[in-house]
C-alpha cells in the first residue's frame, strides 16, 4: 500500500540496519542527518497523542511563532496523517535497535487505533470528497499488523467505494473538487495519492473495477497534467459531458503554467506507486504494507512518468537544495520554502529506488541516484527547519502560499520526515 506517509517513518532505522548486512542490496552507503534518530521524534509525537485521550480534533499545521498545533475537525482531508504516524512509530520501535524518547515503552499500536476511531463515521458520510484516500491511511496501516481486522477492512472498502462513486467514465478520472457547475469536472495532481485506496480495496474484495478506475485516472493524469518537460499543472478542468479539457491552471502555485512543488512531489510518488515493483526489495526500506495490501500493476508506463517528473524536480532544485513553494516563483521577494514538498519528494525518491532495483536487469545506477537525492533533501531540509522547541518536527512548511499560510509545521511534512 502506500503513502501512508507513516510507513516511511521506518526508513531511517531500516537504512542503518541494511547498511551492515552483506549482499542485502547493491546501494552505496548513505549518511542521514543525526536528527533522523533524535529522541525528540518519539517525544513530540507522544506529547501530541496525549493531548486528547479521546480525539475529537486532529493536528494539521502549527502557528508560525511557537510551533503549536492548530486543531481541526475529523472531517478534514489531513486527519489520517497523525494516526498513521503513530502506526509508523510502532514499526520504528521494532526496527530501531536503540531505545530513545519513550520509543519502546509506548504502545504506539494502541494509540494508532485510538486516534483512528473518530474516522470510522466518515466512511459513509464525509465532506472531504476525493481525499478519502488520505483518510484511509491508518486503516491500511492496521492491515499490515492484522490482515483480518474487520474495522480496517470495512473502512478501506467503504472509503474506496466513496472514491469510486466520484469516477466519470466520460472523463476517465475521479472528481477531485466539487463545483457549483456540474459540467465543471475538476481534477488535481494531488489525487494521484488517493488512488491507493482503490488498489487496496480491489485486493481485499476482488473488485477489479476499482483497479481499472485507478489505472484510468492515472493514465488521464499522465496525459493532461504532465507537461513535456516533466513539470505539472495543479488543476485540470474537464467538461463532464464531453470529457474534453477546458482549462489547465493552478490553485496553490505561483501561476497557471508554473510547477507547484508539493503537487510535483505528490505526482512523483503517485505514479511510482502505480507502477510495478517487487516485494523482494523491501529489505531496503521496511514497507510491509505494499506487500500486504497491493498486487503489482505491471504497468511500467507509470514508472516512466514518475522518472520524468523526478528529473524535473531535481533539475529545478536551487543550488542550496531547499525546495521552494513553487519552482517557477520569482526569487525576489524571497520565495518561501516548502519542507512538506521536500519530505514527500524524499519518500517518492525512495520508492523510485525500490522500483529501479526491481527492474530486470537491476538498475543500480538509477536506484543510487534516487537514494542520494532523498538523503540530500533530508539533509538540507533538516538543516533549514529542524525545530526542537516546536510540536512539529520541522518548520518552513507552506500550506497554501496564495492564502499566506506558510512558515509553519505541517502534519504531513512531519509524518513523511520519518
UniProtKB/TrEMBL annotation:
Entry superkingdom:
Eukaryota
Which GO terms are recorded in the biological process aspect for this UniProt protein?
polysaccharide catabolic process
Checking SUPFAM superfamilies in the record gives: Six-hairpin glycosidases
Instruction: From the UniProt annotation, give the residues forming the signal peptide.
Output: 1-20
Coiled-coil ranges per UniProt: none
Presence of the UniProt keyword Hydrolase in the record: yes
Q: Which UniProt keywords apply?
A: Hydrolase, Signal
Q: Does the keyword Signal apply?
A: yes
Record-level Gene Ontology MF annotations? chondroitin hydrolase activity
Q: Where are the transmembrane segments?
A: none
Query: Record's family?
Result: Belongs to the glycosyl hydrolase 88 family.
UniProt name for this protein: Glycoside hydrolase family 88 protein
